[in-house]
Amino acid sequence: MSRLVLVVNGAAGSGRARHAGRHVEDALVAAGHEVIDASGGTAPDGTPDETPHDARGRARAALDDTRADALVVVGGDGAVHLGVGLVAGTDVALGVVAHGSGDDVARALGLPRHDTAAAVARIDAGLRTGARRVDATLLDRADGGHEWAVGVVSCGLDAAVNARANAQRWPPGPARCLRALAGELRRFRPYGYRLTGLDEADRPTEVLHEGPATLVALAGTPWFGGGLHVAPGADLTDGLVDVLVAGPLTRRQVVAVFPRLYRGSHLGHPAVRVHRVAGVLVEPLPGPGTPAPPPAFADGEPVGPLPLRARVVPGALHVLA
């Protein structure tokens, strides 16, 4: 029997995760596991009645008090990000029941999406046969804090679109990203950056980019934004992060290139470059007519303003997959 801490993001997937959470606990108990539910409550409209900070603290306390074998999260990429932040770099495994609107990390890990029974079966099998080890990215924030990520860290127009999409309730799913992009393009100008590659010992190697750019994504997994194939070559087991730099692009060029993200064919555009490195330092480099980049996002969740240092830690995450 394994001891599991369960955290359900009741707002994920327009409330689907809240309903799935009830079945997840019953199924895991029926499979012979002990389950400690560390989920918060929900408001009358179905949204969580606690902040992400509260949810993280509740889950951490449960993990510390119970000496759990695994943390199981039910929700979307935000729930996965919370879970990665709690168990990366430890021996506690992560189980994912994907019921969000994007589920890009679950897609990258080959996990079931919107299929509770299949996801629970994967978790149960992983508990019995052993977890899979994958890479995670450790982020050093501008405020001196640290944060873990496993998917894509957005630092450019992609981050600005993420922020706007998070503030919108309509339309559901990936179409929200398109609406947010249209809103951001009204005022868009390429941002200024200096990107410096880092080796495995966190030493600078080369300047990857200096000057204006439109999109800067640090990809541990191939997808973000609900299925946008931003980094087709990204691999969670190679010890590297794919640093994608696009631009500078005009508004018209952004509109032309954006649809190609769904197929991954944007990599053939002459203004798109990919660098594979063990780590990267992303610094703002504003200038005349070139604004500072927006605050960064990781796995769809806010991280904060640049500069940001990202270092891949090979095998830092145990996943029940």
Task: Report on this structure.
By secondary structure, the protein is of the alpha+beta class. It has 2 domains: 3-130, Rossmann fold (3-Layer(aba) Sandwich), CATH 3.40.50; 144-319, Tumour Suppressor Smad4 (Sandwich), CATH 2.60.200. It has 8 helices and 16 strands. The chain has helices spanning 16-30, 52-66, 77-87, 104-109, 116-129, 157-166, 175-185, 251-257; strands at residues 3-8, 34-37, 70-75, 93-98, 132-140, 146-149, 152-154, 191-198, 204-213, 215-219, 241-246, 272-277, 279-284, 296-298, 301-304, 308-319. The strands form 3 sheets. A 6-stranded antiparallel sheet has the order 6-5-16-13-8-9, with helices on one face. Strand 8 (191-198) and strand 9 form a beta hairpin. It is globular, with a radius of gyration of 19 Å. It starts with a strand and ends with a strand. The mean pLDDT is 92.
Task: Name some characteristics of this structure.
321 residues; alpha+beta; Rossmann fold; Tumour Suppressor Smad4; 6-stranded antiparallel beta sheet; Diacylglycerol_kinase_cat_dom; lipid metabolism
Q: Evaluate the radius of gyration.
A: 19 Å
Number of domains: 2
| Number of extended strands | 16
Q: State the low-pLDDT regions, or none.
A: none
Largest beta sheet: strand ordering? 6-5-16-13-8-9
Oligomer: single chain
Shape: globular
CATH class label of the largest domain: Mainly Beta
Kindly estimate the percentage of residues that lie in beta strands according to DSSP.
Answer: 25-35%
The H/E string reads EHEHEHEHHEEEHHEEEEHEEEEE
Largest sheet: 6 strands, antiparallel
> Percent helix among the residues?
25-40%
What would CATH call the architecture of the largest domain?
Sandwich
Mean pLDDT: 92
In whole angstroms, the N-to-C terminal distance is: 18 Å
CATH topology of the largest domain: Tumour Suppressor Smad4
